[in-house]
Amino acid sequence: MSTYEDRLKALREELARRRLDGFVVPLTDEHMSEYVGAYAQRLAWLTGFQGSAGSAVVLPAEAAIFVDGRYTLQVREQVDGAHWSYQSVPQTSIAQWLREHAGADARIGYDPWLHTRGWVAAARAALAAKGAELVAVETNPVDAIWPDQPRPSDARLLVQPDALAGKPSSIKRQEIADWLDAHGADVAVLSALDSIAWALNIRGADVDRTPVALAYALVHADATADLFVAPDKLDDEVRQHLGNAVRIHDRAAFQPALGQLSGKCVVADPERAVAAIFEALDAAGATIFEARDPAVLSKAVKNETEIAGHRAAQARDGAALTRFLHWLSIEAPKGGLTELSAAAKLLAFREENGLLRDLSFDTISAAGPNAAIPHYRVSAQSDRRIEIDSIYLVDSGGQYQDGTTDVTRTIIVGTPTAEMKDRFTRVLKGHIALARALFPEGTRGSQLDTLARQYLWAAGLDYAHGTGHGVGAFLSVHEGPQRIAPVGSGYAGGDEPLRAGMILSNEPGYYKSGDYGIRIENLVLVEPRDVAGAEKRVFGFETLTFAPIDRNLIDVTLLDSGERAWVDAYHAKVADLIGPLVPLDVRDWLEGACRPLEGA
């Protein structure tokens, strides 16, 4: 198993032993998570792909890996094209590919704990057209050939105190119970890890970069709940916090518990609950009510306590990033920095405040052509020196108990080319257009996406990722249901109406393959706005992230007066908010970095 070729060969042999003609390997876990524990990194172990979204299909004579536009370059660098064909999503799908490549009468395996029921139906229909069959496996064949597969984490649960959550778990459970009553349902299945963490005001450390615990929950119409989690993960403080209204069971008891819901009306989320959950409910004779997990929207709309915590976390994190940018301005021109050394220094600045619980994702520390890979992940093998007259892009964030941060800055080390300044300024103009947007209640993120792309489009340019994603409160850095993304882009959530209290990212970019990449990202809060004469409620965005934007990459002649005023006002607030939080030498540098553009 020393090479990925060996692993692919071993999987094919295992499939042959099971009389399967193929198998689908998604990058997710039993909770349909985006970020998964080490034990669930089957796609990475099998193929070498290190991105956070993708799937693979293995057939006897061919294999394919499926990724979206964020990973077009990355997948080619990490996955051997001699053994895997590269497939682009949403231009194609696993179901379409199987319809074209699976043999007649083929038996294609899938793990029902790693796919939604909708995916299963689509794949089954596609295979049926060929006379082929989709077969559920009882145990995952990748696990059978993975000799040193990590065990699921045994980290303890943590209490998220009401003072930071802003609402006790008892009230959250009662709100879910009221929702169930209004819909004539008896119980809701919560299988998304962040929904469970939010509803019960608990956190965990079972998934790198996301403070959640491996668990399932059933919330009942009487506001009680059953929590299915490894019992040794709970200490007395957590048990006392959960109280008598939350019954504790071993995580392994979840599937049998579903079998006891005969005659009950059970809410299950078709996007977040895996096919195996639906199959268990069907077998039990439960009435299934397909609806979105009732915690999802409530979790996305932050309360005043969570918003205050976010602001505090953003200021703290902005101070750490500003110190890093100051340090970078001194050290990078010397020519000795690499992507890894820069990322390590940024982490050290974040750790100095003593409140960092984890990063919110692996830092994207990308120099030169690596910055053209939107979700680049630096390693010892790819580590690149930060060179003079090149762009360095750093996308990073922290997990603090009062908030989750995510921010990207693009820095020129040395002198930019005219093209770099043009592209950076077009990205900045799009960022400003979105930050300044006013929109009526009911507006979807997909309707706003064009605002951020318009100046790139005018030059025949674009970027292959969404413009904004939701962000949790000491939870997932990628949180639904809201998103700012084009319709039909393959990113779920773009059709969700934006509501006051939602937090999203604002992150347009531009990527020139083999040369450089640009992204400017701040987090923003949806808030009501007073507009004279408005006939509907109007919303806008409050910017939450504060750190200087590199003035050396701005072509001021491309900005109109309103855009220049926005940059100057933003930088004035950065200086006011961050200045008192950094040492005097950094404060002096910050004043220069934030001086008005007119003084350039």
From TrEMBL:
<dbReference type="InterPro" id="IPR036005">
    <property type="entry name" value="Creatinase/aminopeptidase-like"/>
</dbReference>
<keyword id="KW-0479">Metal-binding</keyword>
<dbReference type="InterPro" id="IPR032416">
    <property type="entry name" value="Peptidase_M24_C"/>
</dbReference>
<dbReference type="GO" id="GO:0070006">
    <property type="term" value="F:metalloaminopeptidase activity"/>
</dbReference>
<comment type="similarity">
    <text>Belongs to the peptidase M24B family.</text>
</comment>
<dbReference type="Pfam" id="PF01321">
    <property type="entry name" value="Creatinase_N"/>
</dbReference>
<dbReference type="GO" id="GO:0046872">
    <property type="term" value="F:metal ion binding"/>
</dbReference>
<feature type="domain" description="Creatinase N-terminal">
    <location>
        <begin position="7"/>
        <end position="138"/>
    </location>
</feature>
<dbReference type="InterPro" id="IPR000587">
    <property type="entry name" value="Creatinase_N"/>
</dbReference>
<dbReference type="Pfam" id="PF16188">
    <property type="entry name" value="Peptidase_M24_C"/>
</dbReference>
<feature type="domain" description="Peptidase M24 C-terminal">
    <location>
        <begin position="538"/>
        <end position="597"/>
    </location>
</feature>
<dbReference type="InterPro" id="IPR033740">
    <property type="entry name" value="Pept_M24B"/>
</dbReference>
<dbReference type="InterPro" id="IPR050422">
    <property type="entry name" value="X-Pro_aminopeptidase_P"/>
</dbReference>
<dbReference type="Pfam" id="PF00557">
    <property type="entry name" value="Peptidase_M24"/>
</dbReference>
<keyword id="KW-0645">Protease</keyword>
<keyword id="KW-0031">Aminopeptidase</keyword>
<dbReference type="Pfam" id="PF16189">
    <property type="entry name" value="Creatinase_N_2"/>
</dbReference>
<protein>
    <submittedName>
        <fullName>X-Pro aminopeptidase</fullName>
    </submittedName>
</protein>
<dbReference type="GO" id="GO:0005737">
    <property type="term" value="C:cytoplasm"/>
</dbReference>
<keyword id="KW-0378">Hydrolase</keyword>
<dbReference type="InterPro" id="IPR029149">
    <property type="entry name" value="Creatin/AminoP/Spt16_N"/>
</dbReference>
<feature type="domain" description="Peptidase M24">
    <location>
        <begin position="310"/>
        <end position="527"/>
    </location>
</feature>
<dbReference type="InterPro" id="IPR000994">
    <property type="entry name" value="Pept_M24"/>
</dbReference>
